[in-house]
Design brief:
This protein has 342 residues and is an alpha/beta fold. The chain has 12 helices and 9 strands. The strands form 3 sheets. The chain has a 5-stranded parallel β-sheet with strand order 5-4-3-7-6, with helices on one face. Helix 3 links the parallel strand 3 and strand 4. One of its GO terms (biological process) is fucose metabolic process. Pfam families: O-FucT (PF10250).
Length: 342
């Protein structure tokens, strides 16, 4: 770059000197310098173009998202609905003019069988979700799929009140339960509780069991269904990641319908989230949310020592006894400690 600038300055000086020469000498100098000047000029042009391309490649990654956003705003102004002076939320894409360019991967197939009515189902499935809210959300999603596999009536899942956070919230406090039931009506019959008539007719309390992690559908059909048919009501405990990842297409689509459509937060939670987002958007155009996940099980799996002395070592040692595959040796993680303290 410095060489090109130097050449440009030399050419500028050369042009000034040529202007001061007599006409007969100008022709002589020009005839000697013409080819060289043309070559240097093309070098300058190419260098300038490469410099511009470099700038474009540097800033394109940061500009494309904004350009795309503004282009949609200009070309499709109805795609956004104004909520207040500073926030615009996208409307349902399936109701927009652009919907013809998209297709839903969660739509039911043409041969998808309707949900089994409550009176004709194989029994009632109780689910006790486990872990934090993310794990419980996964458990709820899989619970619907398991109920579909078993042709069972699903009772609204029970959330975990004994995890690290000791949160006493129920399903109805976090998710819109009526929407959950109605949206999945074509997939699985869902009720808020086991009918009293059924409970009174049972000779024994509901059968409780825990299935292995990542269990295949065949496991539920072979091990859970016979018990369900015999006992009418079965409760699956610690229900987190208890269903295999790879399922047939229709069951995978059902997972999507549950997770991305049926599980809708209650109105107060949605309003609070909207308020937080709007306030953050007033402070900056871009922001990121970080979940530090500083919990006992995370500490156990990290195999780190965080500088808390013998008390910390003993407490983490007791927690780590739950998993026999964890390494025994503890290593100092001062970087992690500083990170979480930030």
């Amino acid at each position: 770059m410095g060489v090109s600038v130097g050449k440009a300055w030399s050419l500028g000086m050369l042009s000034t000197n040529l202007a001061l020469l007599p006409n007969n000498k100008k022709k002589h100098v020009c005839s000697q310098q013409q080819r060289k000047t043309i070559t240097i000029s093309w070098s300058l042009v190419c260098g300038f173009m490469l410099f511009i391309l470099g700038l474009i490649s540097l800033f394109t990654g940061h500009m494309l998202s904004d350009l795309e956003w503004y282009s949609h705003r200009l070309v499709h102004p109805n795609f956004y609905s104004r909520l207040d002076g500073n926030y615009r939320a996208p409307i349902d894409i399936w109701k927009s003019k652009l919907s013809k360019y998209y297709y839903g991967c969660s739509d039911r197939g043409r041969d998808y069988a309707p949900a089994v009515p409550e009176q004709m189902s194989n029994g009632y499935l109780l689910i006790a979700a486990s872990g934090g809210l993310n794990q419980q959300r996964t458990g709820i999603t899989d619970a619907v799929v398991v109920a579909r596999i078993l042709n069972a009536t699903l009772v609204v899942p029970e959330l975990d009140h004994h995890s690290f956070w000791k949160d006493d919230s129920d399903f109805i406090n976090i998710f819109d339960v009526d929407w959950f039931i109605s949206y999945l009506a074509k997939d699985v019959t869902i009720v808020k509780r086991v009918p009293d008539k059924v409970m009174r007719s049972m000779e024994k309390p509901p059968y409780t069991m825990r299935v292995p992690r990542k269990s295949e559908p065949d496991y539920y059909l072979d091990q859970v269904l016979p018990i369900l048919l015999r006992r009418q009501v079965v409760q699956l405990t610690k229900f987190d990641f208890r269903l295999a990842n790879h399922l047939d297409d229709e069951l995978q689509k059902l997972r999507c319908r549950v997770n991305y459509h049926a599980l809708r937060f209650t109105k107060p939670i949605q309003e609070l989230g909207q308020t937080i987002v709007m306030r953050m958007q007033k402070m900056a155009r871009r922001f990121i949310a970080v979940h530090l996940r500083f919990e006992p099980d995370m500490l156990a799996f990290s195999s780190c020592y965080f500088g808390g002395g013998d008390k910390e070592r003993n407490e983490l040692g007791e927690i780590r006894k739950r998993w026999t595959t964890l390494p025994v040796r503890l290593q100092p993680c001062f970087l992690s400690t500083n990170y979480f303290a930030m």
